[in-house]
Amino acid sequence: MKLALFSDIHSNLQALQACMAHAQAQGATQLAFLGDMVGYGGEPTAVLDTIMRAVQAGAWAVRGNHDDLALLPPSQIQHVGEQGALWTHAQLSPAHKDFLAQLPLLSQHEHLLLVHASAHHPERWPYVDSSLMAERSMAAASDMDINIRYVFSGHVHQQALYYLTPTAKLMRFVPQPGVPIPVPAHRQWLAIVGSCGQPRDGNVRAMYAMYDSQAATLTFHRVPYDHGAAMQAIRHSELPNAFADRLEQGQ
């Protein structure tokens, strides 16, 4: 199996299409969407239509915090993220809302666990942005099923890889784009696949990752896409222009 993992798409159709095309060219045989499919971007319905077709064809998917926010935006707006959620909510059809509402927070497939944020209290959306938080997520996954060897998540909008050594010491690895990393199943791994639709590391290229079960490798990818078109979609909507500026800056 070659599993392509996409997270934090944030209604960015151009980034999603570019990453899916890249994954197909890399020989992907299974797709997984790790939440935050909507929010911030200008094309939520087209993004959800694409993902819903993929899920109908066998792709895996879990729900993210911005998916929840779009389902039930607050009545009183306190920040621009909530403003975007209110606009997104108004765009979604009943079928889109039903799809998001029925997505699980966790999805296990044999020795793999998919989650948007952390396996440790996934409903609270904690950020796995440190070794401590990675250790908590991995421990929670093991508590669910001792056979889970790989936890795949997003939420942080950057790419990282954590693993446990034979002495149970947690290590963090900074991946290089396009370079396969050996991830043998005798260790436990946690990968943060990065944001497809809203990178925040100063690089405008979209992110995703590919897990090859036969080769026992994980490859983190960066993919160029038409971020100008994605910015235009935002500016043609009622969303704040700042959401478009972030795509141009990779922030």
Topology:
Blueprint: E1 2-6, H1 13-25, E2 30-33, H2 44-56, E3 60-61, H3 65-71, H4 80-91, H5 94-102, E4 106-109, E5 112-115, H6 131-144, E6 150-153, E7 159-164, E8 170-173, E9 181-182, E10 189-193, E11 206-212, E12 217-223, H7 227-235, H8 241-249
Parallel strand pairs: 1-2, 2-3, 5-6, 6-10
Antiparallel strand pairs: 1-11, 4-5, 7-8, 7-10, 9-12, 11-12
Q: Within the CATH hierarchy, at the fold level, what is the topology? A: Purple Acid Phosphatase, chain A, domain 2
- Which structural class do the helices and strands define? alpha/beta
Subunit arrangement of the protein? single chain
CATH architecture descriptor:
4-Layer Sandwich
- With helices defined by DSSP (H or I, 4 residues minimum), what is the helix count? 8
Q: What topology, given as strand order, has the largest sheet?
A: 3-2-1-11-12-9
For the sheet with most strands, the description reads:
6 strands, mixed
Tell me, briefly, the overall form: globular
Q: What percentage of the residues does DSSP assign to strands (E)?
A: 15-25%
Under CATH, the homologous superfamily reads: Metallo-dependent phosphatases
Could you tell me the radius of gyration in angstroms? 17 Å
Tally of domains: 1
**Element-level helix/strand string:** EHEHEHHHEEHEEEEEEEHH
According to CATH, what is the class?
Alpha Beta
Describe the fold and architecture:
With 251 residues, this protein is of the alpha/beta class. The chain has a single domain (6-249), classed as Metallo-dependent phosphatases (Purple Acid Phosphatase, chain A, domain 2, 4-Layer Sandwich). The chain has eight helices and twelve strands. A six-stranded mixed beta sheet has the order 3-2-1-11-12-9. Strands 4-5-6-10-7-8 form a six-stranded mixed beta sheet, covered by helices on one side. α3 (65-71) packs across α4 and α7 packs antiparallel against α8. It is globular, with a radius of gyration of 17 Å. The two termini are 33 Å apart. The model has no long low-confidence stretch (mean pLDDT 95).
